[in-house]
Specification:
CATH architecture of the largest domain: Orthogonal Bundle
Radius of gyration: 20 Å
Number of domains: 2
Strand order of the largest sheet: 4-3-2-1-5-6-7
Strand content: 15-25%
CATH class of the largest domain: Mainly Alpha
Number of strands: 12
């Protein structure tokens, strides 16, 4: 089902919008709270979750006066600081506690900023409960798109990724049948233009020096390897019902063009703007309306020239692997994503080299017996097996 052919949401939007922020202590979560802070007359934060950052959770819960919180890591479920939660605030624990927040009757919109494949269960629960899902968890769609997308009514699922928000905005009021191509833009990351020989010597510190975006460490490493862009290709494939090979990756170093849509008549619509994640976050909360800017707008008369280039899928093989996983479909994207999460973490911990990320993902994909996606349990089993295989390959790499 298309997510953009209606311009008005079908899911209920209370005034003010009552929001649950899952993963409120991370990069997207903290920027979401900043948007809520700036538009306190339009948004009411009623629920928050963290994995283990209980100090940040309590601070936000007290600031916004929330009625429900969740701590997914049960090792932190009894942290002393939780005794400082607002009076009457209900504490939920474990992964099921995060899911429960998305089902609360007093929640209209769930912002899912949970990192990795862990957000799928919360996304399924939120959509099934009829909530608006503003999600920054691309892995949910990459891994579980076959399960999530049939649940979505137009206007119910709003992407928070800057690129997919841009595509969404370009498609409002358009017909999906008239889309010829999606141009998915990409900063190119810190290693743009490097050869594989140069990439072999890059460290985690090098990879974390992103030229334009302020993101969490996992996503920043994925941006350096272009795996992040590969995941976004598959995300666009699911969200906008286009073929994997109809999504072209376009390097836009200044990160001012956030993506473009080309139509069958040759016309192209693009969304331009500052490199600030609060804009797509805010659009997901305000849709179908627009609120005052959360950051300083760009003075286009003072901007340097914008440049365009092509992503090098030979040098950055993770992008090519993601495309292959998307073409095959089934459980292969799940295995690919799980292997990448293991390899990404290992690289951050200096347990493997930069190009080993690609090697680990490729070998796990080659070992995967692909099945049609039928259940969440099946995906969780596939994820666990792929992680186990990735760790075995990692041992070979580091030996």
């Amino acid at each position: 089902m298309s997510i953009f052919e209606d311009t008005a949401p079908r899911a209920s939007r209370h005034q003010p919008l009552r929001v649950a922020v899952l993963g409120c202590s991370g990069s997207i979560g903290t920027q979401t709270l900043d948007v809520c802070r700036q538009h306190a007359d339009k948004v009411q934060v009623v629920a928050l979750s963290v994995h283990g950052s209980t100090k940040a959770l309590v601070a936000a819960a007290r600031e916004f006066g929330v009625s429900h919180v969740a701590v997914s890591d049960e090792r932190h479920a009894h942290d002393a600081i939780l005794g400082e939660l607002p009076q009457g605030c209900v504490l939920h624990t474990g992964p099921e506690g995060v899911v429960a927040l998305g089902e609360l009757p007093e929640v209209d919109c769930v912002v899912s900023a949970v990192v990795g494949a862990a957000g799928i269960r919360a996304g399924l629960a939120s959509l099934s409960a009829g909530k608006v899902l503003a999600y920054a968890n691309k892995e949910s769609i990459v891994v579980g798109g076959d399960l999530l997308m049939p649940l979505v009514a137009p206007g119910q699922l709003i992407p928070v990724d800057s690129e997919h928000s841009a595509i969404y905005q370009c498609l409002v009021g358009e017909r999906g049948s008239e889309v010829a191509k999606i141009w998915l833009t990409c900063s190119g990351g810190p290693f743009y233009g490097m050869s594989r020989e140069e990439l072999a010597h890059m460290t985690a510190a090098d990879a974390l020096a992103h030229p334009t975006w302020n993101m969490g460490q996992k996503i920043t490493i994925d941006s350096a390897s272009l795996m992040n862009k590969g995941l976004e290709v598959l995300e666009a494939h699911h969200l906008f019902e286009v073929g994997v090979d109809d999504v072209r990756v376009l390097v836009q170093r200044q990160s001012r063009i956030h993506s473009m849509v080309e139509f069958v008549d040759g016309s192209v619509k693009a969304q331009f703007g500052p490199s600030d994640m609060r804009i797509p976050i805010q659009y997901a909360l305000s849709y179908p309306n627009r609120w005052s800017a959360p950051c300083t707008p760009v003075d286009w008369c003072q901007e340097p020239a914008l440049t365009l280039g092509e992503a090098d899928e030979d040098a950055f093989g993770c992008l090519a692997l993601a495309r292959e996983a998307g073409r095959v479909g089934g459980t292969l994207p799940c295995a690919m994503n799980a292997a990448n999460e293991v390899a990404n973490e290992a690289f951050r911990l200096n347990q493997c080299g930069f190009l080993d990320i690609e090697r680990i993902v490729r070998e796990v994909m080659e070992q995967t017996s692909v099945e049609r996606v039928e259940s969440l349990q099946q995906l969780e089993d596939c994820d666990a097996l792929a992680r186990s295989r990735a760790r075995e390959v990692l041992l070979e790499v580091s030996a």
